Amino acid sequence: MNPKNMVLSSRVVESLAFILLWLVLHSSFCHGVQSDIDCLKSIKDSLEDQFNYLNSSWNFNNNTEGFICKFTGVECWHPDESKVLNIKLADMGLKGQFPIGIQNCTSLTGLDLSNNKFYGSIPENISRMIPFVTTLDLSSNNFSGSIPKLLSNCTYLNVLKLDHNRFTGQIPLELGQLSRIKEFSAANNLLTGQVPKFQFAITAQSYANNPGLCGEILDPCEETPKKNRTVIIVASAVGGVTFAALAVGVALAFFFRRVAVRKKEDDPEGNKWARSLKGTKAIKAS
């Protein structure tokens, strides 16, 4: 092949490869931008906005690049790029459940819903919804139910605030695996049981006003000694067997008594006739 033709063919291939790569990246970018717009639309539609913070600012009729970055409470990675970095909706009087549509903000690193009227439980798969979040503030709401164990999969978390809600059950011990955590609070809930062992210094104030938290920097948890637990298990087993034996004995006694009564009813004179007959035969034989 002519060297000039080879060079030309090589340049054509390189050009086509560049165009293909550009198309792939552009497609991904457009999809990302649209998903973030859908994210915010879903959040707005799912919440009661009694003070019109969102209704007055979140206008989706504008299609210019980066228009969502001017929304109240929204911060973007770049002012001219509709890619959400943080959502800060604190103190807005918003009411509703945890916004599921948040999962469409695929590059979100911060979420602040504090001091509102959110209620219900936190989704179990929250770590899949906001995998890159570094700050999560859900404090001062009406969230309830248990704290999801899978929060421990949000490995970039630096700040986790869950205080002043109505969470119940135990704080997942798995949260102690969050190596980047620097601030944690679960005070003023309805939590009980052993608290996690974090890798940073945490104060008792982070657990204040819960009915039954214990362990680590709090009072020791009351545990039944292993020996006592064994005794209790054995005693329970023996008690169960004894009760079963007594039940069987009572049942058998009742059964035989019923059989005896029935026989007596069938032969009210008992065996007197048989004894009389035997006596008569005895007289004849003599």
From TrEMBL:
Residues 1-35 form the signal peptide. Keywords: Cell wall, Leucine-rich repeat, Membrane, Repeat, Secreted, Signal, Transmembrane, Transmembrane helix. Residues 34-77 form the Leucine-rich repeat-containing N-terminal plant-type domain. InterPro entries: Leu-rich_rpt (IPR001611), LRR_dom_sf (IPR032675), LRR_N_plant-typ (IPR013210). It is found in: Membrane; Secreted, Cell wall. The chain crosses the membrane at residues 231-256. GO terms for cellular component: membrane. This is Leucine-rich repeat-containing N-terminal plant-type domain-containing protein. PANTHER family: OS01G0891700 PROTEIN, OS10G0469600 PROTEIN.
